[in-house]
Structures are given as structure tokens and as C-alpha cells.
Automatic annotation (TrEMBL):
<feature type="binding site">
    <location>
        <position position="118"/>
    </location>
    <ligand>
        <name>Fe cation</name>
    </ligand>
</feature>
<comment type="similarity">
    <text>Belongs to the KAE1 / TsaD family.</text>
</comment>
<feature type="binding site">
    <location>
        <position position="170"/>
    </location>
    <ligand>
        <name>substrate</name>
    </ligand>
</feature>
<keyword id="KW-0963">Cytoplasm</keyword>
<feature type="binding site">
    <location>
        <position position="187"/>
    </location>
    <ligand>
        <name>substrate</name>
    </ligand>
</feature>
<feature type="binding site">
    <location>
        <begin position="137"/>
        <end position="141"/>
    </location>
    <ligand>
        <name>substrate</name>
    </ligand>
</feature>
<keyword id="KW-0408">Iron</keyword>
<feature type="binding site">
    <location>
        <position position="114"/>
    </location>
    <ligand>
        <name>Fe cation</name>
    </ligand>
</feature>
<feature type="binding site">
    <location>
        <position position="183"/>
    </location>
    <ligand>
        <name>substrate</name>
    </ligand>
</feature>
<keyword id="KW-0808">Transferase</keyword>
<dbReference type="Pfam" id="PF00814">
    <property type="entry name" value="TsaD"/>
</dbReference>
<dbReference type="InterPro" id="IPR017861">
    <property type="entry name" value="KAE1/TsaD"/>
</dbReference>
<dbReference type="GO" id="GO:0002949">
    <property type="term" value="P:tRNA threonylcarbamoyladenosine modification"/>
</dbReference>
<dbReference type="InterPro" id="IPR000905">
    <property type="entry name" value="Gcp-like_dom"/>
</dbReference>
<keyword id="KW-0819">tRNA processing</keyword>
<protein>
    <recommendedName>
        <fullName>tRNA N6-adenosine threonylcarbamoyltransferase</fullName>
        <ecNumber>2.3.1.234</ecNumber>
    </recommendedName>
</protein>
<dbReference type="GO" id="GO:0005506">
    <property type="term" value="F:iron ion binding"/>
</dbReference>
Length: 336
């Protein structure tokens, strides 16, 4: 088979990204324009602002991806684009751009599910990794445990019933006055704190369900701090950060390892922005080792939103015959 070069395009949230990936796993370029500085002043992503910024930057980001890869549009086999889930206005910028390119260049257009992209980042990082394995996908918008049975067959084993793990990190960081995005700031501060200072709840669903719930721990932290403030008592921010982080990480590890046990998998992969969390990586590795399992995760740049992961998922979708036509639309919510 001759080389397959996929141009991946991602614009589902606050990163405008384009990448060129050869044969699924070899990243030739990975261009990202992040809007974090723009949204920081609002304490979170403002959808309308994000869409406008994507429009301003997407052509330049695609040009950079091609030039970094030393490639031209002629070299590209197919164009892969995130069509959902995400912010619909933001997604539409990537989808419209990808459709225009596919039409003008007469190249196939491959639709990619954003969460599938996050999972596939593991294939880029670990060249020997093959399905099956269990993957925890935890980001600002999603917390899923899936079984990757093959490159095209992914079963959802658990999901969050309310907030995503990253959303809880961002919210508690705001309450502690740390800033945005909160995950990395809590991660850093927690290193100076005692994770056993306060025991915040870990929610267990009734029955066999491995679903997550993070709204309870979020509320518990907020109530705890309110009570201290009402009583005029101070608190150690690092202890709160460490204790909150431990409650979330404990739940993520317990459910994921149980999912791997139930499905008979010995490999656990992590994906999504929260997969960068140092306590999650350490605790998952330690507890998995006790069960004779191994844990893999992508480097931080491949955990947060990027287009290399979209191009990787696009490669396997391309081989599978996934194609979109000019009616492709953006979808705020869409099943995996
Ligand atoms: O995957 P991602 O870049 O975007 C979404 O698809 O949502 O994930 C962003 C989320 C944010 O909530 C951010 O706070 C969280 O990932 N995050 C972290 C860490 N780095 C990023 N959460 C905990 N610890 C980290 N080190
Ligand atoms: Zn994401």
C-alpha cells in the first residue's frame, strides 16, 4: 500500500488545530493555535468568541501543518475532521473548511468523532499498541470508560451521569481562586498538600453500574469551604486541592480497573485533558500493577485537543470506508 497522508482538522472547543499524519501513527506535523489566553479573562470558554477566533486562524493553522510536514495539498490522501461532539459554532468552522477543501481538491472527507480521536492519541504515542484495551477518556466535556475492541468497534462501559471530571477540576479551581483552566493548576498545587486532610465523597452507583458522578464531590468541596468561611476559619488551599483531586482520581481508578477486570483486559489507556494529571497517572499505574495490568497514556500535547489524534482516527476511518459528503453537519452531541 502506498503511503496514506491524512490532513486532520479539529475545532470543537478552544483549540484550532491541523495536522498531517502518515499511515495513522507517524505525525509529520501537529499545528495548534490555542485560545486559552483569550478565554481566561472570562473564566471559561465563551462559545461565540471561540467560533470567531477559529475563523480567523484556521487557514493559517492548516498552512502551517502542511509546511511543517513539507507537504502540499496534492500529497494529501484524505481530509479528516471532527464533526462532534463539541461547541456547534466552533465545530462548524472546521467542518465547513474541511468540506470546502475536500470539494475543491476532490479528496475523500472522513468524519471523526472527537472522543474517538482522544482514544486514538494512544496509537500515536505507543506504536506497538493494538486493540483490545480499556480506555478512560476524561476531559473537560466527557468522562467515559470504553473498551476498544478493534480500530472501528468501541463499546461504552461507563459514562458520567452529571459533570465531566475536567469540568469538576475547572470549577473547584475557580472556587479556590486559582484561575483557568483549573486542572493543571490543581495538579500543581496538590503536590504541596495532604490528600488525606479532608475525605470528600466518592460516589458509587447502585447495582453493577460503573458510571461516574462528580457533582457530589464538587458540591461537598464548595459546602465545606462555605462552612469554614462562615465560621471565620481559614484553610490550606493545597490540602483542599489534594483532597479534592484524590476523590476524583480514586473514583476514576476504581471504576477503570474494575472495567478492565470485567472485560478481561490487561491494558488500560488514558486519554483526554485529565489524562495529563500526575496523580491519576501515578495512582492508576500503581493500582493496575497490583492487578497485573499495564497503563499507557499519551504525552500532554496529545492528551489535550489536537488534530494529530483526529488524523489518526481519520486514517482508520478511511481504511474502514467512512466517508462524508457535502451534507456533513456539526453535531453538539453525538453517540460514539
Ligand atoms: O481534552 P481537553 O483538552 O478538552 C476537552 O475535550 O474538553 O480537556 C481539557 C480539560 C480541562 O477541564 C482541564 O482542566 C483538564 O482537561 N486538564 C487537567 C489537567 N490538564 C488538563 N485536569 C487535571 N489535571 C491536569 N493536569
Ligand atoms: Zn477534547
Amino acid at each position: 500500500m502506498s503511503d496514506v497522508l491524512i490532513l486532520g482538522i479539529e475545532s470543537s472547543c478552544d483549540e484550532t488545530a491541523a495536522a498531517v499524519v502518515r499511515n495513522g501513527r507517524e505525525v509529520l506535523s501537529n499545528a495548534i493555535n490555542t485560545q486559552i489566553e483569550i478565554h481566561r479573562q472570562f473564566g471559561g470558554v465563551v462559545p461565540e468568541v471561540a467560533s470567531r477566533r477559529h475563523i480567523q486562524t484556521i487557514d493559517g493553522v492548516i498552512d502551517k501543518a502542511l509546511s511543517d510536514a513539507n507537504a502540499s495539498f496534492d500529497d494529501i490522501t484524505a481530509i479528516a475532521v471532527t464533526y462532534g461532539p463539541g461547541l456547534v459554532g466552533a465545530l462548524l468552522v472546521g467542518v465547513s473548511t474541511a468540506k470546502a477543501l475536500a470539494y475543491a481538491l476532490k479528496k475523500p472527507l472522513v468524519p471523526v468523532h472527537h472522543i474517538k480521536g482522544h482514544i486514538m492519541a494512544n496509537f500515536i504515542e505507543h506504536k506497538e499498541l493494538e486493540p483490545p484495551f480499556v480506555c478512560l477518556v476524561a476531559s473537560g466535556g466527557h468522562s467515559h470508560i470504553v473498551e476498544v475492541k478493534s480500530y472501528t468497534d468501541i463499546d461504552i462501559l461507563a459514562r458520567t451521569r452529571d459533570d465531566a471530571a475536567g469540568e469538576a477540576f475547572d470549577k473547584i479551581a475557580r472556587v479556590l481562586g486559582l484561575g483557568y483552566p483549573g486542572g493543571p493548576l490543581i495538579d500543581k498545587l496538590a503536590k504541596e498538600g495532604d490528600k488525606n486532610a479532608v475525605h470528600f465523597p466518592r460516589v458509587k452507583m447502585d447495582g453493577d453500574s460503573l458510571d461516574f458522578s462528580f457533582s457530589g464531590v464538587k458540591t461537598a468541596v464548595i459546602n465545606y469551604l462555605h462552612k469554614l468561611e462562615q465560621n471565620g476559619e481559614g484553610y490550606n488551599k493545597a490540602d483542599i486541592a489534594a483532597s479534592f483531586q484524590d476523590a476524583v482520581v480514586d473514583a476514576l481508578c476504581t471504576h477503570t480497573i474494575e472495567a478492565a477486570k470485567r472485560t478481561g483486559n490487561k491494558t488500560i489507556a488514558l486519554a483526554g485533558g485529565v489524562a495529563s494529571n500526575s496523580a491519576l497517572r501515578a495512582q492508576m499505574a500503581e493500582r493496575a500493577a497490583d492487578e497485573g495490568m499495564r497503563v499507557l497514556y499519551p504525552s500532554p500535547v496529545l492528551c489535550t485537543d489536537n488534530a494529530a489524534m483526529i488524523a489518526c482516527a481519520g486514517f482508520y476511518g478511511y481504511l474502514n470506508g467512512d466517508r462524508a459528503d457535502m451534507t456533513l453537519n456539526a453535531a453538539a452531541t453525538v453517540k460514539l
